[in-house]
Design a protein that fits this description.
The protein is an alpha/beta fold. The protein is 29% helix and 27% strand. Helix 6 packs across helix 7.
Length: 374
């Protein structure tokens, strides 16, 4: 079948993207689902920094590729061997396909699935297939999803079934922003009531981490960013203190907390900011690395503090989540009024405006823009 999709053919085009137009909306060919695969009609997709980091070359991927990894939709058809999904099911995507067979999957660390990682790096589905093409040439899939299209064919390992009472334009955000940010707090750090948390970087993931810290009963919850509007938004979500990013962050946070925070959560994707976050963790505290820096960046910290201060650095990929367990739980918390997800949304845009949306994301003007695919 023919589908409309936002296709990236070349990385590292100059900004503003509204002029260079790295993503073009084109008609592509989509093959029907194969064994263990599902056809989904996409309804909404979030525009995320992980999409931007592919466009600007910070996270190199094979080209050409249809981007979009944070999305939700409705199952339209299933391939052979699929018995856990049916037409009409509402689904959220997981951008890490979970094979269920590798060592990490068997030990419960499904976001570290070895087969899923290899497929994502190759730009294929979990079974190595590519179902998108243009003029007979294959098109790569983004993280097994390629959600910036009106339809996607994906492995069942990339799907989480959700209730039909959840607005899909909100449900999409649970596939990345919420799973990653809230998950970093409750799964990776396992923050306990009364522990102190500082969150560096208030994009969709960072603000989700603020939500998670408030949900966990952390105190104080310190939001760090350079943009005043994002600091104000974090306060509305429950952050107790706002700190403007800069060279004096360490001294300001140490003064606020009497020596540093229990958990410093870095959501920027910068080795320098991670080093700063580590410096603001107290003795016995930890930094949680959530953002994805360019592969060339190197982290520099005083090595002696790992021993003398018993400080730690924890990596958190997709919030150390188990998507089929955590996404429905987080949606339930949202429905119960415990996670103010609606505050993340900076507006809805049509697929044709995706390059303008990338500019708004790059400048920090927007948090989460929802691409309307309905």
């Amino acid at each position: 079948m023919r589908v409309r999709a936002a296709l990236l053919r070349e990385m590292e085009l100059p900004t503003p993207y509204a002029e260079s137009r790295p993503m073009s909306v084109e008609e592509l060919e989509l093959d029907p689902p194969g064994v263990g695969e599902v056809l989904v009609r996409n309804v909404a997709a979030g525009l995320c920094h992980s999409d931007l980091s592919t466009v600007d070359g910070a996270r190199p991927r094979p080209m050409p590729m249809v981007l979009g990894h944070e999305a939700a939709g409705i199952v339209e058809d299933v391939g052979a061997g699929v018995d856990d999904f049916a037409p009409g099911d509402h689904v959220v995507y997981s951008y890490v396909p979970m094979c269920g067979q590798c060592t990490n999957c068997q030990s419960g660390r499904v976001v570290l699935c070895e087969r899923g990682f290899a497929a994502n790096a190759a730009g294929s589905l979990l079974g190595d297939a590519r179902r998108l093409s243009a003029d007979g040439s294959p098109i790569h899939h983004h993280l097994g999803v390629s959600g910036f299209a009106d339809r996607s064919v994906v492995s069942t390992a990339s799907l989480v079934k959700i209730g039909q009472d959840v607005p899909l334009e909100r449900a999409a955000l649970f596939g990345c922003a919420l799973a990653t940010g809230v998950g970093a707090i409750i799964n990776t750090a396992r923050v306990r009531p009364g522990e102190s948390v500082a969150v560096y970087g208030l994009g969709g993931v960072g603000l989700s981490a603020v939500m998670g810290a408030v949900l966990a009963g952390a105190h104080p919850v310190i939001a760090v960013d350079r943009i005043p509007e994002k600091l104000d938004l974090a306060a509305k979500m429950g952050a107790t203190h706002r700190v403007t990013a800069g060279d004096d962050v360490e001294s300001e946070i140490r003064e606020l907390t009497g020596g540093g925070v229990d958990w410093a959560v870095e959501c920027v994707g910068s080795a320098a900011v991670l080093a700063q976050a580590y410096a603001t963790a107290r003795r016995g505290g930890a930094a949680v690395s959530v953002g994805l820096p360019h592969p060339s960046q190197q982290l520099q910290i005083p090595a002696v503090t790992l021993v003398a201060d018993e400080k730690r650095i924890l990596g958190s990929y997709m919030g150390s989540s188990v998507p089929r367990r955590d996404v429905p739980r987080m949606i339930g918390l949202y429905q119960a009024g415990k996670l103010p997800v609606d505050m993340l949304v900076s507006g809805s845009i049509p697929l044709e405006d995706i390059n303008t949306g990338l500019d708004r994301l790059a400048t920090g003007e927007a948090v989460r823009q929802v691409v309307d695919l309905s």
